Amino acid sequence: MSEESFGIGFVSCGFITRERHVPSVGYLPGVHVAGIQNRTRETAAEVATECRENDLGDPAVYGEGEIAALVENPDVDGVWVTSPNFTRADAVDAAIDAVEDGADLQGIAMEKPVARNLREAAHIVDRIDGAGIPHAYLENWPHEPAIRKMRELLWERGREAGRPYIARSQAEHGGPHSAWFWHGTRQGGGALTDMLCHALAGNHVLLSDPEPTDDDPGSPSGGSEPTAAGLEPVSVSADTETLKWSRERYASQLREEHDVDYESDPADDYARATVRYEDEHGDPVISEASGSWCYVGAGVRRTIELLGPEYSGQVVADEASSSVFFSDAVGAGEGWAEKQTATSGRMPVDAAGAVTGGFVAENRDAVDSFRRGENGTLDLEDGRRILRLCMAAYKAAETGQDVDLRETDLATYTPPPARE
C-alpha cells in the first residue's frame, strides 16, 4: 500500500462489517483494511484472509482484549467501531486510552446506534471529543444513492412550492441474525432501537434543507450531502408491541437458538413512532417511522417517502407487484441476501449491496472528513440526537402519552426491554 492510503481498523467483524463495510473498501481508492479485531480471533483471521484474497489490504489480526493494539498499529489511521451495542462504550474507552498513551488516530467512526442509552452515548461522545479526535456516525440510509437522489430532486424542484412536510419510513424483516440483538439488555431495546434508528435518522435528513437559507442558521450547507440539522423536534408519540416472537412456537425457537426467553421477558418486535417538528417559521413537520421483526418474506422490506405541497417521492426496496413465497419450513437451502429467511419462491439477489445500501458513500464521507481533520457529515452528535428520539419513543409507548422533547429529561431513561 502507498503511504497515502488510509488504513481502516475494524473493531468486530460481524455481518455488517463482513458483508457491507469491508466490501465497500474495494470501491474507495486510497483506502485499505489495515487491521481487524474480534472477540473470536479465528473469525478475524478468516475475514483478514478474505481481504487479502480480494486485494483490500493485508490486515493485522487481533483478538479479545486487543483493541489498544489495533489502535497502536501505525498502519491504522481510523477505527470503525461496529461491535455489538453492549460493547461500544468499552471499545471506545480502550481506543481513547491508547490514544492518550501516545497512539495516533485520525478518526473514529461508529455504526448505528451510537449506544444503548443516552448515558452511554454521553460517555462515548465526551471521551472522543475530549481526546480531540474527529468522529462519524455510520448511518447508511441517508447515504443511499436512491434516497439521496430523491431528496436532492424534490428539494431542488419543489422548493418554490414549499418545503416537504411529511417523511415516512417503514422497514421490516424476519428478525436479527445474531443472538445479542434479541437480548434487550445487550441490544438496548428491541425492534425500535434496531429498526427505527434507521427510519428516524433517514426521515430527519429527508426533511432537512440541503441548502439552508440565511434565516436558518442552524443548518450547515452541504449541497446534496446528507445532513441532520435545521429542524427542532418538539414531541414524540409511539407504540410498541410483541406480536410474533412471544408466541409459544416462536419463543421456543428463540430459547433454543439464542438463549432468550421471550415468553417471560419479551422485547418489542413491532414499533411505530411519530415525531412532530417545527421548522424555522414554527410550522409543523412530521416524521412517521415504523419497523418490525415480524415480516415473512424475501429479506428486508422497506418503503421511504417524502411529501410536499406539490410533489412526492418514494423509494421501495421490494418492487415486485406479485410474488410467491415459501418459508424454510417447506424448503431448505443456503441464503444469499441480508435477513433472507427462506430459499424457495421469489428470492432477492443482493448485487453490490455495499454501493446501493449507502455503505460506500458513508465510508467515503468518513475517510475524506478524517483526512481533513473534520467530523463526518453525520457525526456522533447526530447519533446522540437520533438515540434521544428512540428513548422518547420508548417512553411515549410505555406511558401512553406524548413526550414533550422540550421539557422531558431522558438522560437517565432506560427502555423497558433493557432494564435488568
Low-confidence stretches: 215-225
Class by alpha and beta content: alpha/beta
Instruction: Please report the first level of CATH classification, the CATH class of the largest domain.
Output: Alpha Beta
Query: What Rg do the Cα atoms give?
Result: 21 Å
Overall, the morphology is: globular
GO molecular function: nucleotide binding; oxidoreductase activity
Protein name: Gfo/Idh/MocA family oxidoreductase
Keywords: Oxidoreductase
InterPro entries: Gfo/Idh/MocA-like_OxRdtase_C, Gfo/Idh/MocA-like_OxRdtase_N, Gfo/Idh/MocA_oxidrdct_glycsds, NAD(P)-bd_dom_sf
Describe the structure.
With 420 residues, the protein is of the alpha/beta class. It has 2 domains: 6-105, Rossmann fold (3-Layer(aba) Sandwich), CATH 3.40.50.720; 141-372 and 381-418, Dihydrodipicolinate Reductase, domain 2. The chain contains 13 helices and 15 strands. The strands form 3 sheets. The protein has a 7-stranded mixed sheet with strand order 12-11-7-10-9-8-15. Helix 4 (88-100) runs parallel beside helix 5.
How would you summarize what this structure contains?
Residues 7-129 form the Gfo/Idh/MocA-like oxidoreductase N-terminal domain. By secondary structure, the protein is α/β, with parallel strands linked by helices.
